[in-house]
UniProtKB/TrEMBL annotation:
Family of the protein in this entry: Belongs to the cytochrome P450 family.
Membrane association type: Single-pass membrane protein
Locations listed in the record: Membrane
Predominant subcellular localization, coarse grouping: membrane
Cofactor names: heme
PANTHER family documented for this protein: CYTOCHROME P450 82C3-RELATED (PTHR47947), CYTOCHROME P450, FAMILY 81, SUBFAMILY D, POLYPEPTIDE 5 (PTHR47947:SF62)
GO cellular component, one term: membrane
Name of the protein described by the UniProt record: Cytochrome P450
Keywords, alphabetical: Heme, Iron, Membrane, Metal-binding, Monooxygenase, Oxidoreductase, Signal, Transmembrane, Transmembrane helix
Signal peptide: 1-26
Annotated GO MF terms: heme binding; iron ion binding; monooxygenase activity; oxidoreductase activity, acting on paired donors, with incorporation or reduction of molecular oxygen
Pfam families xrefs: p450 (PF00067)
Annotated heme binding sites: C439
Length: 502
């Protein structure tokens, strides 16, 4: 006699084996190898290997383990890539959306309003709305054209300040780092709020300029508390306490900008004014927190990166006076000697454009792209990459790869003269990143750097402070500052006196 439970049992058992077989057959990626990796220590993983400059340390590991390798920061898996093909596979191919998120670090939680600002927000509808707002309301061609006077006024102020110092002494030694930092700060804050916040006329913004540097100091380091849960629980070295205090300072500054704008009877056309007008029609999205987050990203991401790019460019020109002479001749030919250069003139200055591009190749403002995070398991270059892996793209290494660039460590602006093939499309020139999370402020950065450098070259003669070449050693940090700040000798070109003083 047949047992009544036999056939149902056999049926369920068959379903179980079919299910197990399907799971194995639909997950071939689990059979793929993991990326090569150096030996790790218990608990901390590879954090002990990270020495400044981080991008150079990672490149050293790449020379041993290949263009894609993995690390472990505490409990967090990390993958580093150093080739255009890998960048394309991660940021424009099948994995583009997979790597469009960000890791959940304490910086993004406290400074970034609980991961609600553009840089730190996870990929999704809120991030898409923020990105669209930045593209259309802050960095669009129309908005940049509306703020041209702010950049013109601050650049002219810088030129006149240098003129005053050099005309009294014929030639003067200039702390270029300080000049560029003050200029970048005032240009961006003036675009945002219509005021200057540091320099001779205003001193109340000096504290915030220090805050910007402090934020970059935090962002440019790898704190164990971000990666080892136990250390976060006990607040190792008081890291979270310090970052909360810094967040209060940044929030107070940005809230002050908003309150100042609200107290003004008439709109002045600044970015804060424009965003507050949007708040009137869409208060749900354009909350004070969203507005603070938008202007925070603009200032935090723009001040040090812009000023340091100008500092690297002037350092390179002082070490290569023949290129400085070419840039000067180009300006004299296309602009003349009877007027000061305008932002609209930059399109005529191809050699200056090449100088800026070559500066960004050798000294990208962010040598390691801001880290991405995989939102699901994926395959890169035939290797299995688990969900929740932090991804670093070493742009500095790609920009100096001898397989991609002729004489990669030499300063050769002419390499960008022939642009029949756009290097960014080949994923070998990525100073502003690539993919969905590429920097939306590229147009503004190029305008500021171009106008300032052109103005300084047009108005002054520049020399090194000694026969020795400028020290080009890289410092540590997210945005790769010079290890030794630039100083230079300048004097006014004879025919520029009336133009500058007028």
């Amino acid at each position: 006699m047949e047992a009544p439970w036999l056939w149902p049992s056999l049926f369920l058992l068959s379903l179980f084996f079919v299910f197990k077989w399907q799971r194995r057959s639909t997950k071939p990626k689990l059979l793929l190898p993991l990326t090569p990796s150096p030996p790790a220590l218990p608990v901390v993983g590879h954090l002990h290997l990270l020495k400044h400059p981080i991008h150079q340390t990672l490149h050293g590991l790449s020379l041993k383990y290949g263009p894609i390798f993995s690390l472990r920061f505490g409990s967090l898996p990390v993958v580093v890539i150093e080739s255009p093909a890998l960048v394309e596979e991660c940021f424009s191919g099948k994995n583009d959306a997979v790597f469009a998120s960000r890791p959940f670090l304490l910086m993004g939680k406290h400074i970034g309003y609980n991961y609600n600002v553009l840089i730190a927000a996870p990929y999704g509808e809120h991030w898409r709305r923020l990105r669209k707002t930045c593209s259309l309301e802050i960095f669009s061609l129309h908005r940049l054209n509306l703020s041209v006077d702010a950049r013109k006024e601050e650049t002219k102020r810088l030129v006149r300040k240098l003129y005053k110092q050099s005309s009294e002494n014929c030639s003067v030694k200039v702390d270029m780092k300080s000049f560029f930092s003050e200029l970048a700060f005032n240009v961006l804050v003036k675009m945002v709020a219509g005021n200057r916040y540091c320099g001779e006329d205003f001193v109340e913004g000096r504290d915030f300029r220090e805050i910007v540097h402090e934020v970059f100091k935090f962002a440019g380091a790898f704190y164990p508390a971000d990666f080892v849960p136990l250390l976060r629980l006990i607040d190792y070295q008081g890291y979270e306490k310090r970052i909360k205090k810094l967040a209060m300072k940044t929030d107070a500054f940005f809230q002050g900008l908003i309150m100042d704008a609200r107290r003004t009877d008439e709109r002045e056309g600044t970015i804060v004014d424009h965003l507050l007008s949007q708040q009137e029609s869409e208060p749900e999205f354009y909350s004070d927190q969203t507005i603070k987050g938008l202007i925070m990203v603009m200032l935090m991401a723009g001040i040090d990166t812009t000023s340091e790019t100008m500092e690297w460019a002037m350092s390179l020109l002082l070490n290569h006076p023949e290129e400085l002479s070419k840039a000067k001749s180009e300006i004299d030919i296309y602009i003349g000697r009877d007027r000061l250069i305008e932002e609209s003139d930059l399109l005529k200055l191809s050699h200056l454009d090449n100088i800026i591009a070559e500066t960004l190749r050798l000294y990208p403002a962010v040598p390691l792209l801001i880290p991405h995070m995989s939102s699901q398991d994926c395959v890169v270059a035939g290797f299995h990459v688990p969900r929740g892996t932090m991804l670093f793209a070493n742009v500095w290494a790609i920009h100096r790869d001898p397989n991609l660039w002729e004489n990669p460590t030499d300063f050769m602006p002419e390499r960008f003269q022939s642009r029949d093939v756009d290097a960014s499309r080949d994923f070998k020139f990525l100073p502003f990143g690539t993919g969905r999370r590429a920097c939306p402020g590229m147009g503004l950065a190029n305008r500021v750097v171009g106008l300032v450098l052109a103005s300084l070259i047009q108005c002054f003669e520049w020399e090194r402070i000694s026969e020795e070449k400028v020290d080009m050693t890289e410092g540590g940090g997210l945005n790769m500052p010079k290890s030794k700040p630039l100083e230079a000798i300048c004097r006014v070109r004879p025919f520029m006196h009336d133009l500058i003083s007028g």
